[in-house]
């Protein structure tokens, strides 16, 4: 049997799951492991959402649905987008997908091929680069810099767009940095993109509901000039603590939505029917659980930032979105992945090394504060002990 299959030797993965596997293995050996590695809320899915799925099963929703998703859910997605952006997309341009990653997979597959460029944030979600390389396109990193408070620079981003740039990937609020790009910078970028009509845009807004300090999330759906080439990525995993439900959605330009539908038909037929009714309940039901989770994340964020900045050789900017801190560890003398490995093996703290998020991630580690305040404080204590030895 051949050991090389075209394209597959170029594909990468998300190392957070490898760290999770090792942390689980150590836990099963009896070690006390505090997991600040995986980006997963530690809350349960709100009860009314769970009950909606159970009711859907009992009501007989056991079969296929349209490949794009049930109409009431697509209408609810459109209404929810309107609340945040002032614009309600046509429900026929909404596609319900099995998890947020699927949207980036489809978008990059559509636009990536040898001889083309795709721009992506670095440090950024590792699947962006992995999928770009898989398609044979050239991955072009857009630097996400600490001195810019981990927001992207419109000028720097625009300077990287070339004639062969087919797709620009944006992410705010951002993984792994927690950075939120301000409106002024986004407006400058949108204005500059008018000079590059050949470049499509995928906006990853999976953390749209997770901002702090009164800072607003600015959805690219607001900007009419982009809508004919904008792909919006969002979903339920982070906002509603529904990671295991595998529920996401995307909004596509009218010229692309049928192509996306065909990919859906070829790849997964449709999303789990009862899960779609759960997603409907999430968007149309009470939102108090979302606010309660966000309040708790905010408390943990302050504990993390304060604690990290007290550690020798560590400095940490205050993240304004998502549930990640991305401290600078260069003064410790450690390389990031070596430090992450030692923290897990020797101190029982699971974190992710910055290089797992891109070539510009060296000198940083990512901590998820989607864990209890008590566990975060225990982890910070262990971190301090580790650095003092």
From TrEMBL:
EC annotation from Swiss-Prot or TrEMBL: 2.6.1.1
Cofactor: pyridoxal 5'-phosphate
Substrates-to-products reaction catalysed: L-aspartate + 2-oxoglutarate = oxaloacetate + L-glutamate
Protein's UniProt keywords contain Transferase: yes
Keywords recorded for this protein, A-Z: Aminotransferase, Pyridoxal phosphate, Transferase
Source superkingdom: Bacteria
Domain called Aminotransferase class I/classII large: residue spans: 32-382
Any Pfam family: Aminotran_1_2
Signal found in the keyword field: no
InterPro entries in UniProt: Aminotransferase_I/II_large (IPR004839), AspAT/PAT-like (IPR050596), PyrdxlP-dep_Trfase (IPR015424), PyrdxlP-dep_Trfase_major (IPR015421), PyrdxlP-dep_Trfase_small (IPR015422)
Sequence similarity: Belongs to the class-I pyridoxal-phosphate-dependent aminotransferase family.
Organism annotation: Roseibium hamelinense
Annotated GO MF terms: L-aspartate:2-oxoglutarate aminotransferase activity; pyridoxal phosphate binding
Protein name per its UniProtKB record: aspartate transaminase
GO terms of biological process kind: amino acid metabolic process
Top-rank EC class of the record's enzyme: transferase
């Amino acid at each position: 049997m051949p050991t090389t299959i075209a394209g597959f030797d170029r594909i990468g993965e998300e190392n957070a799951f490898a760290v999770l596997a090792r942390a689980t293995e150590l836990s099963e050996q009896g070690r006390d492991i505090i997991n600040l590695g995986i980006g997963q809320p530690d809350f349960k899915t709100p009860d009314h959402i769970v009950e909606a799925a159970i009711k859907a099963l009992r009501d007989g929703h056991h079969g296929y649905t349209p490949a794009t998703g049930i109409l009431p859910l697509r209408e609810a997605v459109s209404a929810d987008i309107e609340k945040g952006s002032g614009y309600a997309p046509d429900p026929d341009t909404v596609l319900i997908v099995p998890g947020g990653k699927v949207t980036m997979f489809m978008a990059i597959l559509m636009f990536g091929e040898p001889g083309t460029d795709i721009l992506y944030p670095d440090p950024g979600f590792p699947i962006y680069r992995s999928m770009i390389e898989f398609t044979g396109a050239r991955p072009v990193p857009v630097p996400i810099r600490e001195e810019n408070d981990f927001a992207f620079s419109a000028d720097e981003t625009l300077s990287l767009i070339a004639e062969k740039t087919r797709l620009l990937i944006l992410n705010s609020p951002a993984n792994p940095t927690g950075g939120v790009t301000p409106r002024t910078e986004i407006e400058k970028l949108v204005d500059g993109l008018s000079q590059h009509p050949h470049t499509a845009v995928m906006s990853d807004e999976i953390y749209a509901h997770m901002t702090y300090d009164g800072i607003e999330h600015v959805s690219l759906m607001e900007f009419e000039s982009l809508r004919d080439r904008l792909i919006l990525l969002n979903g339920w995993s982070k906002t509603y603590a529904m990671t295991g439900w595998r529920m996401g959605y995307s909004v596509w330009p009218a010229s692309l939505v049928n192509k996306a539908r065909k990919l859906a038909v070829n790849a997964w037929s449709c999303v789990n029917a009862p899960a779609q009714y759960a997603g409907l309940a999430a968007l149309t039901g009470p939102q108090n659980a979302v606010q309660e989770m966000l309040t708790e994340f905010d408390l943990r964020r302050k504990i993390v930032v304060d604690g990290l900045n007290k550690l020798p050789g560590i400095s940490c900017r205050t993240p304004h979105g998502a549930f990640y801190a991305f401290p600078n560890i260069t003064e410790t003398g450690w390389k990031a992945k070596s430090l992450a490995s030692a923290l897990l093996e020797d101190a029982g703290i699971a974190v992710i090394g910055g290089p797992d998020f891109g070539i510009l991630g060296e000198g940083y580690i990512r901590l998820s504060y989607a864990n209890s305040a008590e566990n975060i404080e225990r982890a910070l204590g262990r971190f301090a002990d580790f650095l003092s030895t």
